[in-house]
Amino acid sequence: MPLIFDIALTHIAGRGRQTLVAVIGVAVGVGFSIAMAALMQGGQDDFVRQLVDTMPHVDITDEQRTARRQPAGDAFATVAISGLRPRDDRRGIINQTAATSWLESWIPGRFAASLKTQGVIRFSSREVGAAIIGIEPEREPGVSPIVGNFVEGSFSALAAGGNNVLIGDTMASRLGAGFGDTITAVSAEGLTRNFKIAGLFHTGTTARDEGEAYVLLKSAQILSARPNAINEIRIKLDDPDRAPAVAQRAEAELGYKAVAWQEANESILEALVVRNVIMYTVVGAIMLVAGFGIYNIISTITHEKARDIAIMKSLGFPESDMRRLFLLEGVAIGAAGSVLGGLFGVSMTYALSLVRFEIAATGQEMTRLPIAWSLMHYVIASAFALGSAAVAGYLPARRAARLNPVEIIRGAS
């Protein structure tokens, strides 16, 4: 076996320039594959993290997953019911005290009840549509992403009581209002109430920054004429992956629709899976192209060393040694390319992690490219490289093993 290694190294060294080109080809393929995987995986992780951080892991609302059965259907053997006049049901989640107590007893995380109603926010002669959300200040910090995103004022101002409101800085800009100004909230029921702006937040999510206003739960209940009502319970779990099981149990017990964050973003998560498939397909294609270079080198060596092969076989080397010889040459080139490619991949990934750019229209926010450092990226890229190198080396090796030494020696004489 050591003799086979020596012969393989001699063959590779004998074509130093071509070998170097093949090694560089593999290294570039491995390096770019690692950098691309780190960038795409980092972007995916950052996107999922934002989903998990900015929305509740489980959202329980006063909706029903399926339509309620009509009382007429229970009283009569009807085939179909038509012409029913919908009842104005604005009760929200029934038995909210019992529901929250039950959730408190087993939820592995935190939750907060709220009342969300649609309305209009007015200031001077301007107005914008908004979701007016009544919250409990003592529970909201456990589930809300806005608590740490205030550019003026703070979330604690809401807990101080009074007719205070927290709005996004984008909404304030559209209204022409500022911190400390008094705005008017108009509910869908036509009720109005004045609130003082006690805080301006900026989350980076346009829909939230320009379309949500937070007030005390009691103020929202008065504004919407729904005393003691809630219509949403938002849950943040210690382990976000447990959201589907928690949502299923909560919906079965409470009877209200409970949606896990995975269900709410199912199409997005499916798109990420498809993107990963595309990414690794591209990685495989890059390694396949590098494999052609290795195949060309080994094929050339096989052709040029036909006489050497004949002499070795005539000296008693079996066909398995011939296959092993040229297979080792291909794998050696692939291994050298993988090592250099790993170093190249580290350098490229580090360089990408240093890139900074502005994303805010105001030029105030800076960010870096999301990068995921994972050993698995190096393992996968190296495995593709070694696999393609093994295949590229095996095909000429099989041909070399089948050469007839008698015909080669006769042809050379």
UniProtKB/TrEMBL annotation:
Domain of life: Bacteria
Pfam families: FtsX, MacB_PCD
Keyword field contains Coiled coil: no
Entry keyword set: Cell membrane, Lipoprotein, Membrane, Transmembrane, Transmembrane helix
Transmembrane segments: 20-40, 277-298, 325-351, 371-395
A GO term from the CC aspect: plasma membrane protein complex
Keyword Lipoprotein: yes
GO annotation terms (biological process): lipoprotein localization to outer membrane
InterPro entries referenced in this protein's UniProt entry, alphabetically: ABC3_permease_C (IPR003838), Lipoprotein-release_system (IPR051447), MacB_PCD (IPR025857)
Chief subcellular location: membrane
Membrane topology: Multi-pass membrane protein
Compartment list: Cell membrane
The MacB-like periplasmic core domain, residue ranges: 19-252
Signal peptide: none
Domain spans labelled ABC3 transporter permease C-terminal: 282-405
Family: Belongs to the ABC-4 integral membrane protein family. LolC/E subfamily.
Stated name of the protein: Lipoprotein-releasing system transmembrane protein LolC
Source species of the chain: Mesorhizobium prunaredense
